[in-house]
Amino acid sequence: MLVLLETPAGYGLFRVTNSKILSMESEEIANYFQSPEKVNKSVSLESFLRFNDTKSALTEATALVESKLSKGLSKFIKKNIPNPASESLAVADKVLGGLIKQKYDIDIVYNPKTQEIIRGIRNQVTDLLTGITEKDMRTMALSLSHSLGRFKLKFSPEKIDTMIIQAVALLDDLDRELNNYAMRLREWYGWHFPELGKIISDKDVYANCIKTIGFRHNTRNSNLQMPPCNIPSEVEAEIKQAAEISMGTDITEEDLKNILELCDRVLELTNYRESLSTYLKTRMSTIAPNLTYMVGELIGARLISHAGSLMNLAKHPSSTVQILGAEKALFRALKTKKSTPKYGLIYHAAVVGQSAPKLKGKISRILAAKLSLCIRVDALNDQNEPTVAIQNKEYVERRLEELSNQLNSGRLSAAGSNKKPQTPSYSPVKTQAIGSYDSSSDFVGSKRKSFGNRDEGDSPEKKAKY
């Protein structure tokens, strides 16, 4: 009986020389593979095919993992088993053995005994092979395991969406912290020069102006048109005029020192945020170029972060992508049996923002349908340039223009083109019921009248008749 064994170095074909092993129990077979001497008495090497490089080893190992008959293994069996009808072959994979039997009509053996024989040969394989040491086998196994793991995980240094998730989360934290620091700076320096905060709204320019001016009385001699302030001349004149009549209070040198340190923190955070935004844009263009082209790097990164990964986002249908980020509103609407939200994170996309309020829901649905296709292309493709997103974005913009024209011309109803007309409520006509009492048939005779009026002056004779 022949035994087929795959190793990190290549394919091995061994022959069982000790026929007693085949009739033993699987527990007793292990005793014949405890030492190299016993192994050489029980098994002999028929042929060995060594892999040329790691790439060929990865190709063969990938086929074995998927239980496929590769070209290299097929040629090896065909060359070394010239008479398959007279041989029996023990294999470690039952599915692979079925493919070999179907192609070469060879008797395949797969049972606990053969598995124990293969296990014993694998433990002593370096003693059966010539020219390959145990150290070489470990090195080849380590290299092949890394290559195979990288192949199975589809690993690529440029395709790590974890970096995007962390970067967009840090960007949100920086925005909150930067806004808090900027607000604190305005309130702090506003005690000394409150008019400056009303004239300048940008936080970076405001911090640079504080560093340039310092105390309020230095405004007259400060040149705010030069860097880093870069303020127009008319704004500078307004600031100097406001400094002359300012209602702020005086501060000390120590107060100004702490205010200037806060200005440095605001400017440092601003510079770091700009560099982080550039990094996020570069990463998004590499990992999800179609998604970035459709909605921008920031919204695309938020969608990936909300779904957990790009692959998880690709598994979502377009209806889920449309309301992703509005889960609280969705469950609240389902609980109260009201209208569900029409958009989530994609509400901030440019194509949705520039649409009319009456068209935002329809455009969000159209955008989500095309966006789901782009996400799947990005998740399963290795290109770094937008492909399907170019046509999809043109389609969404064209649909927005068509719907806007319909709305302006009056062909689209105010509440939406798909709204059904209201059905008038049913109000039944009140008719007289059949079989009801008819008061007109009542009989009122003269005697009845006289009987009713007998106390009003009837004669005694008439009273006697009654």
UniProtKB/TrEMBL annotation:
<dbReference type="GO" id="GO:0042254">
    <property type="term" value="P:ribosome biogenesis"/>
</dbReference>
<dbReference type="InterPro" id="IPR045056">
    <property type="entry name" value="Nop56/Nop58"/>
</dbReference>
<comment type="similarity">
    <text>Belongs to the NOP5/NOP56 family.</text>
</comment>
<dbReference type="GO" id="GO:0032040">
    <property type="term" value="C:small-subunit processome"/>
</dbReference>
<dbReference type="InterPro" id="IPR036070">
    <property type="entry name" value="Nop_dom_sf"/>
</dbReference>
<feature type="region of interest" description="Disordered">
    <location>
        <begin position="411"/>
        <end position="466"/>
    </location>
</feature>
<feature type="domain" description="Nop">
    <location>
        <begin position="287"/>
        <end position="405"/>
    </location>
</feature>
<protein>
    <submittedName>
        <fullName>Nucleolar NOP5 NOP58-like pre-mRNA splicinig factor prp31</fullName>
    </submittedName>
</protein>
<dbReference type="GO" id="GO:0031428">
    <property type="term" value="C:box C/D methylation guide snoRNP complex"/>
</dbReference>
<dbReference type="InterPro" id="IPR042239">
    <property type="entry name" value="Nop_C"/>
</dbReference>
<dbReference type="InterPro" id="IPR012974">
    <property type="entry name" value="NOP58/56_N"/>
</dbReference>
<feature type="compositionally biased region" description="Basic and acidic residues">
    <location>
        <begin position="452"/>
        <end position="466"/>
    </location>
</feature>
<dbReference type="GO" id="GO:0030515">
    <property type="term" value="F:snoRNA binding"/>
</dbReference>
<feature type="compositionally biased region" description="Polar residues">
    <location>
        <begin position="411"/>
        <end position="443"/>
    </location>
</feature>
<dbReference type="InterPro" id="IPR002687">
    <property type="entry name" value="Nop_dom"/>
</dbReference>
<keyword id="KW-0690">Ribosome biogenesis</keyword>
<dbReference type="Pfam" id="PF08156">
    <property type="entry name" value="NOP5NT"/>
</dbReference>
<keyword id="KW-0539">Nucleus</keyword>
<dbReference type="InterPro" id="IPR012976">
    <property type="entry name" value="NOSIC"/>
</dbReference>
<dbReference type="Pfam" id="PF01798">
    <property type="entry name" value="Nop"/>
</dbReference>
